Amino acid sequence: MYDNQGKIRKIVCITAGIWLISLLIFVLLCGKLIEKPPLVWISACTGYGIWNLCIFGCGYWAIRRTINRTMNGINACIQHLIDGQKKQFFGMEEESSLGKFQNQIWKLYEIINGAKEREEKMRREMSGLIADLVHQINTPLTNIQMYCGFLERDTFAPGEREKICRIIDSQVEKLGGFGDGFTKAIRLEEDVMQMRPTEQPILEMVLAAIDQIAWKAEQNGQEICLEGAQDICGVYDRRWTEEALFNLLDNAVKYGEKGRKIIVSMEEYPMVVRIDVKNYGVPLTRAEYGKVYQRFYRGNNAALVKEGVGLGLYLTRKILNQENGYVKAEVWRTEVWRAEITEGAAETQGGDTSMKGQGSVFSIFLPKSQ
Fold first, then answer.
1. Which of 75-79, 133-137, 315-319 shows the lowest mean pLDDT across its residues?
2. Selection from 242, 256, 244, 255 nearest residue 207 by Cα
3. pLDDT digits (tens, 9 = 90+) for 5-53
4. Euclidean distance between the first and final Cα of the chain, in Å?
5. For site-directed labelling of 6, which of 22, 73, 231, 351 has its Cα 20 to 30 A away?
6. With left for phi above 0 and alpha for psi between -120 and 50, is residue 226 left, alpha or beta?
7. d(CA 308, CA 327)
8. pLDDT of residue 129
9. Separation of alpha carbons 216 and 254, rounded Å
């Protein structure tokens, strides 16, 4: 490590000092050479000029050598970073320009290296997503092939052919769901760097998500009710957060009891805003809380009786993480009138008849401000 700025300053000072001393000596000699012949004057002036050239030539050579060392140090610093090594060549003092340069180029290296790591991580995630998708589509493809083989038979009991066709249709629909979920995952990976959360009202986004699922809920006899504060704002990306909320609403419709309400509520806290999606139905078990956000994971009940591919909650969590938010799953416990609970049921619940698990609630938490 060396301070080139200080060295150059020292060289300039030494050169100037020698020149001033030489000038003083030359002036004193001039006083003694007044009565000397012109040839002596010419020789003295020539000698003084040559001496000055030597002084400034040596100063120039010393400064150039120092600058070359500086450039070589910069080149070595950059080359070490290219080779993946961080080596200190200059002092890190605040007043040192080279120290500042070294600090800035280290920061640039860390930014570039971090971007490479993020890109590699995204590539690994994409490879894993493709591998999972290929694994998941093998089952419906095998089923389709098997049932198509059944259709080649000539003997069928009444209704069997229609049953096989319905099974094949459900498997084709499942393949379509895989493709749709995979497309959304690809779009999210591509747009993740362009995601721009801004502070904006919550209500409009919530209503847009409800509009997308309203027809499906109506077919199941379900009513979507909106509750809570409606004039709150949060920091989010409108396009992707609407997609995340739609996924929660879609799950609530698919796994909720038919003919029952689905409640969407909004609440404001000092640091975050909360959006709850509640539905009546079989609640999640505590063991499933952390698993439901995995790619292609489906709960035991859902996997047996409901359509779906298990990508909705995975995408929801990924979207909210990019917005500095998060999603949380809980059992929805509602108050139960004591008059509606028999004595035997009260004993089964250990005497606690005030709360009862009625379904599931998924909560979205978004930052309240930038």
1. 133-137
2. 242
3. 677 788 888 888 888 888 888 777 776 766 677 777 777 788 878 888 8
4. 42
5. 22
6. beta
7. 20
8. 66
9. 9
d(CA 177, CA 112): 37
Amino acid of residue 366: L
Rounded to whole angstroms, how far apart are CA atoms 185 and 136? 15
Give phi and psi for 153, each to the nearest 5: -75, 155
**210 contacts 249 by C-beta, under 8 angstroms:** yes
Single-letter amino acid, residue 184? K
Tokens, residue 57: 């030539």
